[in-house]
Structure formats: C-alpha cells, structure tokens
Amino acid sequence: MNTHSWPRAVFERLHIRHANPWGVGTSAYERRKYRQTLALLAGRHFMNALELGCSIGVMTARLARQCDRLLAVDVSRIALRRARLRCTGREGVSFYRGHLPGGFPALPARGCDLIVISELLYFLSPADITRLAGQCLRVRRSGAPIMLVNWTGPTDTPCTGDEAARHFVACCLRAGLRVVHARRHVGYRLDMLADGGDGADTAMTD
Predict the structure, then answer these.
(1) Which of 5, 39, 49 is nearest to 190 (CA)?
(2) Model pTM?
C-alpha cells in the first residue's frame, strides 16, 4: 500500500473519466450517508461552515440549507466546476481549490462554527492527517462540531477509513475535544467531535 497522500493528478483524472465518481449523486449508499450525516445536525443553523472534500457538491447543496455561509473545498478543478453548477442559486456558498493539507484555505482563527470532512481523510498519510487536524482546530470556533465521515470497506489508500478516523480523533482528543457521537453504519462510520457534553453516543466496534 502506498503510504503517501494521493496527489492532485489522481483526483483530476478521476473526475475527467467519471461525471459522477463514486456514485456520489446517485447511489443508495450515498443517499443514506447524507441522510445520517445531516440528521446529526437537524435543527441547527450555522454562520460559517467549512466542508472539506466536497467533490461535485451533492452534500454541499444540502448542507447549505443550514448555513449562512459555506466554504466547500476540493482538490479537483473539474469537480468544483460541477459543484458550482449544482449549487447555482444557493446564497452564501463559495468554493476553494486546494490540495489538503498544504492547500488549506486562509481562514481567520476561530472562524468556523461547523467543519465537515467527508470521505477525504483516508486519502492522506497519517502525518498529513495530523497536520489537517491542527489546521481544523485552529479555525474551529469554541463549541463548533467537527464531523468525520469515512468509508470502512477495503481500500488501497494510505490509511483505511478506521485508521484515518482514529488519527484525526486522537489529535482532537489531545486538544481537549471529546467524541460526542461515534456510529458505525453499513460501509461507513460517522464521528462527531465537540467541546464535551455528558457523554458520547457510541456504537463502534474498533
């Protein structure tokens, strides 16, 4: 297995070959995943949200309904072009092209009240996951949740989804955050980190 973070060119080629990579706009798996992710945020509204790994913007369009401003980030120029089209008419949505963690957007410290990282972390090396976690913690406002979504099936990526989640969560725990939700679903896991609470809602087996 290649232990280096995947380069930008891999994702650009993927989006050239496939208008709907991973079936993000059509598969039942993706629909269930979006539904469960948004259910954790039900009834909440956010001023400044950050979505890392937006791909063609399917989740972006749904998440935008709960946000005054949403910055969606992806490495692929083609993916972002399709995401912009999908989100036409959605006020407050903007896009940024960056190869994470090096291309993390220049955001004010403590500026985000929601961070969503979906199906991205396992494409990064452990060292880059640690770096990205530090960047997210820097821009995260006190009280803001960080949501992680990771595929848990077989993969040839630098980390498995479970390994990637554990690396990121460990960084957040060292910074004083707590896991307030951790659930394993068919094919993926959902983790939410925040400043605390009375206890974690957990159903993990690892």
Answers:
(1) 39
(2) 0.91
